[in-house]
């Protein structure tokens, strides 16, 4: 009987091992299929990018970069490839990229959007080499990596691209994710394909996560080692602005009360307009609307005018007169200007959109923060602000209208929220130092190599 039990136990173990091997084999097959599909669709990449350029979603003059063709020379010496998908991720990376620059390490920064490229140009200038990130296709990525030969790759937040991960791993280039997070939806998707997740996440050399929850999720999906740093966005500088423009608009606004709806998505501009109309007889306020995607501004202006509202647009340099209802912030890279014109900001993609947007910038610049409840992508930032009283989450448009009216009318309550927000920001600082310390095994050898190079060899 004991022998039979042992045979049964061994057979069960063998079955589980065989099942695991089959699942791992299927995962490898799926990733191979992904790469083969990339090879097959590569001939369509050019027309696809041309279409996106026509739609304004690609830089027409630089779209060859998306196929892995370099538009700048590679400098001699150590080079780290850093990648951030869009504006928010790029802002979070800036202090870390400057730290790498202080260590004489060349930084190649790739981004995926036109707006983020403009941000890099304005904020970092010649401190980094900027390229648009290649499509996650075998030929594009091999061409890109063969040319730039990075010594390490640092990605921000939640960028997981199979071909890129596999190609870097094949070449033994360390892959590090910083300020890492995984949304609820993404985590559920990866869990449904856990063997594929393990095959990819297991190839990461290091993950530095924003929170304990994010760290746990990365570990569950196969990443190791995983550390926790906090949110790098707490260590960023406040967004800058043009002092002359700020002075001009402050003079034009005068004593009028203001509030802003920033990073708005479709539906949230209409909500802000309705709130403006409801509150104007009591407050006479100016409403500032800053859409997340400025290319929607023509449609937004048409909607506002259809409601009988007077609109001034930043892109036209319109003056703000006493009759102006809405100041439409339709320019790129000027969030610092808009937030300095108010002490009350609703942060969008949270009422009609999903996921939320970064609340730390308005808190940093002295704004009481309001938001819808759909903020899962910035859960910890909102939790920290709300715990101290620097932010309030609202359920619907009616509740938002009441909160805006209360805070416009109550200077003491508004100031209390502002102070609490700035206290929260100060407490959240420190993620940069933790991240740099975690990266030292990878960047310290590069620093030594860079500083041993003759100056003529490291010149760009």
| Structural classification | alpha/beta
Overall residue-averaged pLDDT value: 92
Strand order of the largest sheet: 3-2-1-4-5-6-7
Radius of gyration based on Cα positions: 25 Å
Distance between the termini: 76 Å
How many structurally independent domains? 2
- Detail the poorly predicted runs: 2-8, 456-460
Write down the CATH topology of the largest domain: Rossmann fold
| Beta-strand content estimate | 5-15%
Work out the helix count.
19
CATH architecture of the largest domain: 3-Layer(aba) Sandwich
Largest sheet at a glance? 7 strands, parallel
- Give the helix level as a range of percent: 40-55%
Oligomer: single chain
Site (Transition state stabilizer): 157, 233
Function: Involved in lipopolysaccharide (LPS) biosynthesis. Catalyzes the transfer of 3-deoxy-D-manno-octulosonate (Kdo) residue(s) from CMP-Kdo to lipid IV(A), the tetraacyldisaccharide-1,4'-bisphosphate precursor of lipid A.
Main location: membrane
GO molecular function: Kdo transferase activity
